[in-house]
Write a structure and sequence with these properties.
The complex is a heterotrimer of chains A (441), B (315) and C (312). Chain A has 441 residues and is an alpha/beta fold. Chain A is built from 20 helices and 12 strands. Chain A folds into 2 domains: 191 residues, Periplasmic binding protein-like II (D-Maltodextrin-Binding Protein, domain 2), CATH 3.40.190; 218 residues, Periplasmic binding protein-like II (D-Maltodextrin-Binding Protein, domain 2), CATH 3.40.190. In chain A, the strands form 3 sheets. A 5-stranded mixed beta sheet of chain A has the order 2-1-3-11-4, sandwiched between helices. Chain A has a 5-stranded mixed beta sheet with strand order 6-7-8-5-9. In chain A, a hairpin with a 2-residue loop joins β6 and β7. Chain B has 2 domains: 51 residues, no CATH class; 240 residues, MetI-like fold (Orthogonal Bundle), CATH 1.10.3720.10. Chain B contains 14 helices and no strands. The two termini of chain B are 30 Å apart. With 312 residues, chain C is mostly helical. The chains are: A alpha/beta (441), B mainly alpha (315), C mainly alpha (312). Chains in contact: A-B, A-C, B-C. Chains B and C meet through α1, α3, α5, α6 and α7 of B and α1, α6, α7, α8 and α9 of C.
């Protein structure tokens, strides 16, 4: 009896020793958006808690208020977050105001190299200024806009026949935006299994970044450019080029002809809702939703397929980059523990598990693994999409640039004010004003 | 009057009582009681206001703590007043303000008039009608987006039930022509009871004897309504309009949750527009100038109105 | 039966009563709908046509208080059987409970900040109102008008410097900062209302007490306070309701630690999309206390909402 008690005590003491290097245990708070991948990260981080003895707390905010809340947090000098998985466009501002810690020395000391990550994600999520080896984040979650479609509807013989006789080509994954529109038109208002269904759920949200993320997808492939490649910050003739105008006009046509009723303010969650409730044939959305769609009770499995952004009239094909890097907040009280987390997170085994749990790893070892492309039905689409990404401005004044875009696009596409030419000319004016304020022009 | 404030306090305390009071003097107590309140209001209302005015002459930005701040004189004011976006926001605010007040006055007065008929159980029904206005506008506004959804929303369904219009054929929040009305409807739903309560107090303040006298003079009911009821209730009604006007000029929470300012910028009221400038674009100096202009506008309009109100009251 | 020219006829009463009852039923419908949606299943909540009769479920409330996650089919099958009724509900929708949600903490913040600011506001407000009522404070009218005018400022307009001030003082996203702020905002209401209530207490009571040898302080808290108790209570409830409902400052100045429920409730998400039953459940729990208070307060309502400008 005595013996048994003794062993219990010893075992208990050993357990507590093993679990808590007492003096060092910090409580880390990680801030990110509230979405499916965040739940997966909580699951993944349990491994870190076990290994390090630190505890993790999480602060997740829905996308539409994410930038608002978190930039407010950074600008108010708060120390709620130790680790921030902040949006790619914040990097310029956070770097220039010293809100994130520069990670170069840490990467060198720990042998982490950015060559191990998908190049587009390094430029997009980690670097400021862009294309210079100054790193403010470690690519954490690769994301890109792509499309989901109802494979089961596409494969119905009667629909295939009718489609072919109307449009003259086989109902299949669209290769151009023109084809995409024809498909959307075809499904708009159609009766399927007793329900009225609609063409395509696209981004139209006004408050944060929705309509910009959606319309830009189309604009890029139509030939929109942010600036003169030869002459930075020279906008006129690029932002409002005839190609850009055609792109924005196309987006409005798509909205007018083929979106479900009442989708004047839709972003990620609204589109998921429209799609999983069986309302639409096509859905524009970031890749993060695909694991959830694949396991969905209504539309999961073979009922859904995935394809990358189609090409524009000139054959150009681009997709809007999403995704985030993980950064250490300069105001944090636990910088060391936060760096420890990043070190742990960068390990190939952890990254492999991250993908398994539904997180899009940006580590090349994971995505270039021969088994990756076939590991999930959407894995190949993800790779194809990641190869054609473009991102919005990541300037320190990105919020002003984005707000102007949101306003101009929503005014034209949703409210129907003016023409696409006027909207883009106006956008050039707004952006020039912002850059003048910044002293960049 | 040349007496200093301290002399006034001294004079305020009756001599015969002052001699009998133990402990602190009344003058000291008056100061001790009032000072904390004044200090807190100075710290959290007046000091910030002065700070806002100061910031409005600079190009300071909260999100650029390392940047140099310089004085720009009246440039921010000039830019605010020449920015067409701000005038769009003002127009949206005016549309919202005018229509909510018109509708709330009509509905509120009618309800008060009916309730004043003193039917059985009027207390209970009054309380029920009043409920919406006490609730959190942000939470309620958020839920109305659900009620406004085409097809599944209760509002659209109710409209289709009575008119036969297809409930999925219109979107209150998304349609350019309907969105400005969607916010007017919800605000009217919430705040008509406020006007009702004040009008009810007005109606109940009219002595029966006036009507009895009118009855003896054989004045028609219609005439009594226009010559007795309306003029007697008018000061109350104007007070209600003042309160609603100030509140709706400041309107933020309900509309942010309902439409977020969209579609386009059709329902982007001044407060929402200001919030975007200040806390999304972080143009602090510019937004401060904007804030000062808004404040001066409310204060100016309210002062003019109060003068008019006093004239009506004194008539 | 005597005829009175001012007493409405029976027919008039009947017509007026019917119209008011119809209006009341229409106006209460959205609130009933919120409460009902809280007890619907997610698919019933978005059914077309809207469901009036449905099988009630607590799924919305369970979703409100938990975060849930998807797991792979193998893992799901390998799970031990659910150990509680709420776990059963979550499992039935193909999900697993990942942990508690933030709703409880946000609700608690609303309570702490609401009661804290109300308490402070009542102490300061009662003292100031007493002074304004009983003593001839210099520039009294100006001060009173100044106090009232602080209520006219759009919250967003003063939010910029308050944001900066809080940032420098480290008050951003703290309970103390929000309590202080709401106290300041509510002071105007409490001073004006309480002055009205105290004005109504005959000054002779205190004079008698003073002659009996009470000090001013004793006279204040032994004579005036008990007399003003009802007024103080109803004023307190008005302050509480305001702090409870406030959104603009809360959304700008709080984030993780001190965030109250109003900015939080609209951001409640399910797995995948909007979870309307959970939002409705959160709204119901949040709105119900105010509805109860409103019914309790009905006698003082008019006075409260008009800053004492109109008394019944």
């Amino acid at each position: 009896m005595k013996h048994k008690i003794l062993t219990t005590v010893i075992a208990g003491a050993m357990l507590s020793l093993g679990h808590a290097p007492a003096a060092q245990a910090d409580n880390l708070t990680l801030c990110w958006a509230a979405w499916d991948p965040a739940n997966a990260l909580v699951e993944l981080s349990k491994g870190f808690e076990e290994e390090s003895g630190h505890t993790m707390s999480f602060e997740f905010v829905p996308w539409t208020s994410f930038a608002d809340r978190m930039l407010n947090e950074l600008n108010s000098g708060g120390n709620l977050c130790d680790l921030m998985i902040g949006d790619s466009q914040w990097i310029g501002g956070a770097a220039e105001s010293g809100q994130y810690i520069k990670l170069n020395d840490f990467f060198d000391a720990e042998g982490i190299t950015m060559d191990d990550f998908i190049p587009a994600t390094v430029v997009g999520y980690a670097e400021w200024p862009k294309n210079s080896p100054n790193y403010w984040a470690l690519p954490a979650f690769g994301d890109v806009v792509g499309w989901t479609y109802r494979k089961d509807w596409f494969s119905r013989p009667e629909l295939q026949e009718e489609f072919k006789s109307t449009y003259g080509w086989d109902l299949d994954v669209p290769e151009t935006f023109e084809q995409l529109q024809q498909i959307a038109e075809f499904f708009q208002g159609r009766e399927i299994d007793g329900n009225t269904v609609y063409g395509a759920a696209i981004y139209t949200e006004r408050g944060s970044e929705g309509i910009t993320m959606g319309a830009m997808d189309v604009l890029y492939s139509f030939g929109f450019q942010y600036e003169d490649p030869e002459n930075p910050y020279s906008l006129d003739g690029f932002v409002n080029s005839p190609e850009s105008v055609a792109g924005l006009e196309f987006y409005k046509t798509l909205y007018d002809c083929c979106s479900p009723p009442g989708s004047s303010n839709a972003y990620m969650t609204e589109n998921i809702d429209a799609y999983t409730s069986g309302q639409v044939a096509l859905q524009m959305n970031f890749a993060f939703i695909w694991p959830g769609i694949h396991t969905d009770a209504n539309v999961g499995g073979d009922r859904s397929g995935y394809f990358p952004n189609p090409a524009g009239p000139n054959g150009d094909q681009f997709a809007q980059l999403g995704g985030q890097g993980i950064s250490v907040v300069a105001n944090s009280d636990s910088v060391d523990a936060a760096l420890e987390y990043i070190k742990w997170f960068a390990q190939p085994e952890v990254q492999a598990k991250w993908w398994e749990l539904g997180g899009y790893s940006a580590l090349r070892a994971v995505v270039e693994d021969p088994g990756f492309a076939t590991s999930q039905p959407y894995a190949q689409t993800f790779l194809d999409s990641m190869a054609i990404v473009k991102d919005f401005w990541a300037e320190p004044s990105y919020a002003s640039l984005l707000q102007a875009t949101q306003r101009r696009f929503h005014d034209y596409v949703i409210a129907g004010n003016g023409t696409a030419q006027e909207a883009l000319d106006g956008l050039v004016e707004d952006w020039v004003e912002v850059f003048e304020d910044e002293g960049k022009l | 009057m040349s007496a200093s404030p301290l002399d006034q306090v001294a004079a305020a305390t009756p001599v015969q009582m002052a001699t009998k009071i133990k402990g602190l003097s009344d003058r000291a107590i008056a100061w001790i009681f009032v000072t904390p309140t004044i200090l807190i209001l100075l710290a959290i209302n007046i000091f910030p206001l002065i700070w806002t005015i100061r910031l409005s002459f600079t190009d300071f930005r909260v999100n650029r703590p390392n940047a140099e701040v310089s004085w720009v004189g009246l440039r921010n004011y000039e830019r605010v007043l020449t920015d067409p976006d701000i005038w769009t926001a003002m127009q949206a605010t005016a549309h919202f303000l005018i229509w909510t007040i018109v509708l709330q006055v009509l509905i509120g007065f009618t309800l008060a008039y009916l309730i004043n008929k003193k039917f059985r159980g009027n207390d209970l029904w009054t309380t029920i009608i009043v409920l919406p206005m006490m609730l959190s506008p942000a939470v309620v506004g958020n839920f109305w987006t659900f009620l406004y959804q085409p097809q599944i929303g209760l509002f659209n369904y109710a409209v289709s039930f009575f008119t036969g219009i297809d409930p999925s054929s219109f979107s209150m929040i998304g349609d350019v022509n309907l969105a400005p009305w969607s916010i007017v409807i919800v605000d009217t739903w919430m705040w008509s009871p406020f006007v009702m309560l004040i009008c009810l107090a007005g109606l109940r303040s009219i002595p029966d004897s006036i009507y009895e006298a009118a009855e003896c003079d054989r004045a028609s009911k219609w005439r009594q309504f226009w010559t007795i009821t309306i003029p007697m209730v008018l000061p109350f009604l104007m007070l209600a309009v003042l309160f609603r006007g100030i509140e709706n000029f400041k309107m933020f929470d309900l509309v942010v949750q309902l439409t977020g300012g969209g579609p386009g910028s059709l329902t982007e009221l001044s407060s929402i527009n200001l919030k975007r400038e200040a806390f999304e674009k972080w143009r602090t100096g510019y937004a401060s100038a904007y804030a000062v202009i808004l404040f001066v506008t409310v204060f100016g309009l309210a002062s003019i109105y109060v003068k008019a109100l006093n004239r009506v009251k004194n008539r | 039966m005597s005829f009175s020219p001012t007493e409405p006829s029976r027919r008039q009463k009947w017509v007026a009563g019917t119209l008011v009852v119809v209006y009341a039923l229409v106006t209460i419908l959205p609130l009933v709908w919120i409460i009902a949606t809280g007890f619907k299943s997610p698919s019933d909540a978005i059914a077309y046509p809207p469901k009036v009769v449905f099988e009630p479920t607590l799924e919305g409330y369970v979703n409100l208080f938990t975060t849930r996650t998807r797991v792979s089919e193998e893992d799901f099958a390998a799970l031990p059987p659910p150990s509680s009724w709420y776990e059963q509900i979550v499992r039935d929708s193909g999900l697993v409970i990942a942990g508690p949600s933030r709703y409880g903490a946000r609700f608690a913040n609303s309570l702490i900040i609401g009661f804290g600011s109300t308490f402070l506001c009542m102490i300061l407000g009662t003292a100031a109102a007493y002074a304004f009522s009983r003593f001839r404070v210099p520039i009294k009218d100006d001060l009173l008008f100044f106090i009232l005018s602080t209520r006219m400022m759009p919250p967003i307009a003063v939010a910029i410097p308050i944001f900066l001030m809080f940032k420098n003082l480290g008050l951003n996203d703290t309970h103390a900062g929000m309590i202080l702020l709401y106290t300041a905002v509510n002071l105007s209401l409490s001073v004006w209302l309480l002055k009205g209530f105290i004005d109504e207490i005959p000054v002779e009571y205190e004079e008698a007490a003073l002659i009996d040898g009470y000090t001013r302080f004793q006279a204040f808290y032994k004579v005036v306070l008990p007399q003003a108790a009802t007024g103080i209570a109803s004023t307190a409830i008005f302050c509480l309701i305001f702090a409870w409902n406030e959104y603009a400052f809360a959304v700008l100045l709080t984030s993780g630690t001190a965030q109250t429920a109003p900015p939080f409730i609209p951001t409640i998400l399910g797995v995948g999309g909007q979870d309307w039953p959970a939002i409705a459940a959160g709204a119901t729990l949040f709105l119900l206390p105010v509805m109860v208070f409103t019914i309790l307060l009905r006698k003082h309502l008019l006075r409260g909402i008009t800053f004492g400008a109109v008394r019944k």
